[in-house]
Amino acid sequence: MVSQIDHIATAPHDPAPGPRPIRWRRGRVVTLAVAVGVVAAGVPTGIAYAGDIAHGVHVLGVDVGGRSTAEAARLLERRLAGRVTAPVQVRVGGSEVTFTAADAGLTLDARASARRAADTRPAPWTAVFGSRDVDPVVSLDLEKLTRILQPHVGTQGTAPVWPAIRFPGAAPGERPTGSALTPVTVAPRAGRGLNRHAAAERVREGWLRTARIDLPITDVTPVTTAADLDTLKTDLAEPAVAHPVTLTVDGRDVEITPAAIAASLTIESDADGRVVPRVDPAKLRTALAPVLATVQTAPTDATFTLHNGQPVAVPDAPGRAVDFDAAAKALLDVLGRPAPRRITAGTVPVPAARTAQTLRDLGIVELVSTFTTKMLPGQARNRNIKLVADLARGTVVPAGATFSLNKLTGDRTLAKGYLMAPVIENGKIKNAPGGGISQFATTAFNAGYYAGMVDVEHRPHSYHFDRYPAVIEATTIYPELDMAWRNDSPHAVLVDTQWTETSLTVSLFGTKRFDIETVYGPKTNVTSPPAITLAEADCNATDGIPGFRQEAWRVFEQNGVELKRERFAWTYRAEPKFTCAPR
C-alpha cells in the first residue's frame, strides 16, 4: 500500500496554489549558517578595532574609542583640563582642606592613559553594544601630600612615638668617658592619625572622580617594634662605639673615633616608623674634618697675574677629597664587628670654584683705569694702607656687583694687625686703629671713578689734604661710612694694588668702555684756618689748612665724543692750626 505522503511527494505536476517552496539539503544549511556567522562576527570586530583604541573604551567618562593613541591623549588633555586645574577638596576626619593638584604633585599622564586604553581589548559585541572604563594613569608626590594633610589631623589624632636609637654623648673629636656614648633607645608607641599610604591611594583614586575625598583617622603603628630596636642596639649600636675604626685613604690612615662614629651613625625611623640604620656621609665628613688635611688636598682657584702690564689667567688645579659616600657605606658594614676594624675609601676629584676658562669668560682683558696717591715714608698709617692694599689685591668684581671697602675689611682693629694712626674725630686729629685707610679709600674711589663705575657711597674729608684730589676723594668710618662703587659694565673687573714706601696705586682691569676726564670749577668761599690750643693727652699739632668750596664734573667720552657729565661738589672746612699745650 502506498502512503499518502509518498504519493504527494512523488506526484508529478502538483498544482500548488502559492510560490514554489525552496527545497533545502542538510549540508547546504550548515554551510550557510557558518558563512553568516563569520560575516556577522567580522562586522563588529572591524567596528570595534577601527583605531588604536577599541570602540566603547572610556577614561574618566571620556569616550576615546576608535581613536589613535595620540588623538586620545589630546582629547583627554582637552576634556579634563578643567578637572585637573580645579581645587582638590579633601576631608581629613572632620577637618576640611583644599589644595591644588600641583601642591601635592598630582598629575594626569594623558599619554600613558591613552596607551593603557589602547592595550584594552573588550569583546567585540561589548565594544559595539556596551562600554569599558579604563583607569587613568595618575601620580602624586607622597611627601608633598603628607606635608599638606598631616597638620589637619590636629587634635583628632595622637602622634605616635617613632622608634630610634640615639647617642647623647661626646661631640666629635672628644674622647668619650664613662657612659658618654651609651646608646639610648626610644621605644615605639602607636598613635592615631593618617595612614599616609592608604590616604595617598584614596587621593589618587578619588582625584578627577569625586567632588570631595574623605580620609579617615586610623591607627598608626610604627613598623619597627621594640624587639627590633633591642636587637639593633645589641647587634649594631653598642659594638659600633666600642672601638675606633681605621680608615685608609690612598695608603694613609685616619682614625674614626667612637665619638665620630656616634656623630655620623643615624638610627632613626622614616615617616612610616621603619628604622633603617645608615651612616650619614655629610656628618662623617664633619666629624673627621680636623684630621682630613693628611688625606685630602684642597682645589686651587684660577687667579690673575700681571705680565707686561696685562692680566693673564693662572690655571686652576683640582683637589682630591675622600669619597665619603663609599666610606659611609663601608663603615656601616663593619660597625657590628669586633676590633680591630679597618675600612678603605678612595678619593674623588674636587673641581676649583673658579677655573681659568671662567676667568677668560669674564672679559678681563686690558687696563681700564689706574690711580696713584703719595705717602710719606716711615709713618704708622702706611702699615694700615698696605694691609688693606694686600687684602684687595686680586679681587674680582663681577658685572653688576659692588666693591665695598667696609665689606672688604670689616672692622679695623689692633687684633687684625692695624696700627694706631691719625684720624679726624670731632674736628680734631686723634689716633685710632686703622688710621690712614682713607688714603686707600680715595685711591680706590678714583680708580672706579676713572673706570666709569657707578658711585654708590662716598664722602670727602672734612678738611682737604693736598695728597688727595679735591672733591673726588673719600674718607671711611667703619661701619657708618663706606666707600663703594658698582660695576655696571657687562664685564667683570679685576682689582690690582701696588705699594711702595712712598706711593699707593690701585688699578682696574677689564674691558674699557669710556675715556674719563675731570673738569674743575673754581674754588669759592675760601676760609682761613683758626688757631686753637689744645690741652689734651691725645693731641696732634697741625699747620692749619684753608677751607673752600669746589665743583668737579666727570666727563664720559667714547671715540672723542662726549656722552654725559656727572657733577660732584664739596665744601671743605678750614682745618684749625692746632697747638698742643704743655702738660
Outline the secondary-structure elements.
Blueprint: H1 4-10, H2 26-48, E1 57-59, E2 62-63, H3 69-79, H4 81-85, E3 88-92, E4 95-99, E5 107-108, H5 110-118, H6 124-129, E6 132-133, E7 138-139, H7 142-149, E8 164-166, E9 184-186, E10 191-193, H8 196-206, E11 213-215, E12 218-220, H9 226-240, E13 245-249, E14 252-256, H10 258-264, E15 265-268, E16 278-279, H11 281-288, E17 303-307, E18 310-314, E19 319-322, H12 324-334, E20 342-345, E21 347-350, H13 356-360, E22 366-374, H14 380-392, E23 396-397, E24 402-404, H15 405-409, E25 420-425, E26 428-433, H16 437-450, E27 454-457, E28 484-486, E29 493-499, E30 503-510, E31 515-520, E32 524-527, E33 531-534, E34 547-558, E35 561-572, E36 577-580
Parallel strand pairs: 1-6, 3-11, 13-20, 33-36
Antiparallel strand pairs: 1-2, 3-4, 5-7, 8-9, 8-15, 10-12, 13-14, 15-16, 17-18, 19-21, 22-30, 23-29, 24-28, 25-26, 27-28, 29-30, 31-34, 32-34, 34-35
Helix pairs in contact: 3-5, 10-11, 11-12, 14-16
Low-confidence stretches: 1-49, 172-178
Largest sheet: 4 strands, antiparallel
Assembly of the depicted chains: single chain
| Beta-strand content bin | 25-35%
Helix content: 25-40%
Return Rg in Å: 44 Å
Q: Strand pairing plus helix content: what structural class?
A: alpha+beta
Tally of strands: 36
**How many H/I helices?**
16
Shape: elongated
Give the strand line-up of the largest sheet. Answer: 9-8-15-16
Distance between the termini: 176 Å
Average pLDDT score: 89
Q: Count the domains.
A: 3
Protein name: Vanomycin resistance protein VanB
Pfam family, one: VanW
Keywords: Membrane, Transmembrane, Transmembrane helix
Organism: Virgisporangium ochraceum
